[in-house]
Design brief:
Layout lengths: L1 H8 L12 E5 L5 E6 L8 H11 L8 E4 L13 H8 L3 E4 L11 H8 L3 E4 L3 H7 L1 H9 L3 E9 L17 H12 L3 E5 H7 L15 E5 L10 H4 L4 E5 L4 H9 L2 E5 L9 H10 L4 E4 L3 H9 L5 E7 L24 E9 L2 E8 L4
Parallel strand pairs: 3-4, 4-5, 6-11, 6-12, 7-8, 7-11, 8-9, 9-10
Antiparallel strand pairs: 1-2, 1-3, 12-14, 13-14
Helix pairs in contact: 3-4
Length: 359
């Protein structure tokens, strides 16, 4: 199962919106005879890739065992059910890390395997398999993506100088690592303020990826310039507006952007409705890289599941904060987090903190 999980990691940046799944097939004598991971959406899933691999090796699946990180699917989507492929191949046993949260599957794949006489064991490395697909679980169970907010800051919590200068607070290793986290997201998001001030591309450049994530801009009044670099980068751009100006809309659409209107009561984009819409569009993980105001709005509305924070070993004094929300009236009103990981990345420190009131 460890090897199957390693294979599943190879589907990051490739299989979205499908989950990252790995499969290892072993012969009755314990030899590994087939390996595979989920391909690009519409392509074969991990189990089929592993079956193809063993066939290419001249091996037989009769009496073999499939070790798979997520329950084999039981429904016809873009591809036929994987549980049927395993049954037809004559496998005797399947070891499944975790049940598929998709309501179209949700135990039915395991049930069909057992009904066909395949012995099914579940649970090995379930936590690791779920973590790898935490966004897929979020979308299936909550109808919205897993929201991860990335912040690069000084040790005293400043993301930029008062004049907005922020390149670069953290080092090159942290920037490369940040692009690896962008790669695993179905969409990267920023606000129009960041577009106007920094003119970012928001794509994945510093690590290899097969598929670029969708780039999302929160822009209530459609102030994004049609010549902004974010519109020129590879991949698609989706702009969420509250009260779109038709002339601006036409100009942005001519530049290749899609426009979606989700107006809130305050004349700004309804962030909760936006997340629901992104979930409906198949986005599993949303990677937020925005300024302090939009960050603050996400935090204030309780929409951040996880914080990915890079801290540089330097002090900036006066400057811009991580997230502008509050002020709080009591310490008990603080946003409670749990540290999930602390690691050096180059000269910087990477903190992974998760909301205590999470899903």
């Amino acid at each position: 199962m460890h090897e199957a999980l390693a294979l599943a990691h190879q589907a990051i940046g490739l299989s979205e919106p499908n989950p990252h799944v790995g499969c290892v097939i072993t012969a009755p004598d314990g030899r590994v005879i087939g390996r595979g991971h989920t391909q690009q959406a519409g392509g074969p899933h991990a189990e089929v890739m592993a079956l193809r691999d063993l066939q290419a090796r001249g091996e037989s699946a009769r009496g073999a065992t499939a070790h798979v990180t997520l329950e084999p699917c039981s429904h016809h989507g873009r591809t036929p059910p994987c549980c049927d492929a395993l049954i037809s191949a004559g496998l005797a046993r399947a070891v499944v890390a975790v049940q598929d949260p998709n309501p179209l599957v949700a135990g039915q794949g395991i049930a069909r395997l057992r009904a066909a006489g395949v012995v099914v064991d579940t649970g090995p490395l379930a936590d690791e398999a779920r973590e790898l697909n935490i966004g897929f679980f979020s979308r299936m169970q909550r109808g919205r993506p897993w929201v991860r907010m990335k912040i690069a800051a000084s040790l005293d919590g400043r993301t930029a100088l008062p004049n907005g200068a922020s390149q670069w607070i953290t080092g090159e290793a942290a920037r490369i690592d940040g692009h690896a986290w962008r790669k695993r997201a179905g969409a990267t998001l920023t606000g129009v303020g960041t577009v106007l001030e920094d003119d970012p591309r928001l794509d994945v450049r510093l690590v290899d990826t097969a598929v670029q994530p969708l780039r999302v801009i929160v822009d209530s009044r459609l102030e994004t310039p049609p010549a902004a670099r974010i519109l020129d980068a590879p991949g698609s751009v989706l702009i969420y507006a509250a009260a779109p100006d038709e002339i601006r809309r036409a100009a942005l659409e001519a530049s290749g952007a899609q426009i979606a209107v989700v107006a809130g009561p305050n004349g700004k984009v309804d962030l909760t409705a936006m997340l629901t819409d992104l979930g409906a569009r198949g986005i599993n993980e949303l990677h937020v890289e925005a300024g302090s105001k939009l960050n603050g709005s996400f935090v204030r509305e309780g929409l951040v599941d996880e914080f990915l924070i890079y801290l540089a070993p330097k002090l900036l004094g006066a400057g811009r904060e991580m997230a502008a929300f509050g002020p709080l009236q009591a310490l008990t009103d603080a946003v409670a987090l749990q540290f999930m990981g602390v690691e050096f990345v180059g000269d910087d420190l990477r903190l992974l903190a998760r909301s205590v009131s999470g899903p």
